[in-house]
Amino acid sequence: MKIATIIIRSLIGLLLLFASISYFLHLFPEPPLTGNMKLFNDGIKASGYLMPLVKTIELICGLSFVIGKFNKLTFILLMPISVNIICTHLFLAPEGIPVASFLFLGNIFLIYTKWDSYKGLFTA
Fold first, then answer.
1. Membrane spanning segments where (predicted)?
2. Could you count the other beta carbons within 10 Å of the beta carbon of residue 78?
């Protein structure tokens, strides 16, 4: 279980680092979007702050996962982002479901491995 945790944590960390660094350094051209995904993306861009905020959090989480520090906090911090990514791909861009599923299910698995640390969050 410990080796699986390290592998999944490292893969997610590298994925997050790649996505955030690519965004900030404009390493790849933005793919053309159509339909509702274009509307959604235009709305996020119109806010002016949301995408840089999400990518900054992804960068911090990716560094945390790769380095192996503050992971319990990082698992929780990444959860709303991974839920949004999977929902975006389920409803607007189905071609990204495999990677989004890996991120979401990997995050669920990582939280499960440290469940004793999170039990206090769910008690009244």
1. 7-26, 46-66, 73-91, 97-115
2. 26
The H or E element containing residue 99 is helix 97-113
Report which residue type is found at 52. Answer: P
Characterise 31 by phi-psi region: left (phi > 0), alpha (psi -120 to 50), beta (else). Answer: beta
Instruction: Tally Cβ neighbours within 10 Å of residue 3.
Output: 7
Strand blocks (E) in 11-111: none
Q: How many CB atoms lie within 10 A of CB 58?
A: 24
Residues 6+ apart with CB under 8 A from 90: 97, 100
| pTM (whole model) above 0.90 | no
Q: With a cut of 90, say whether residue 121 has pLDDT above it.
A: no
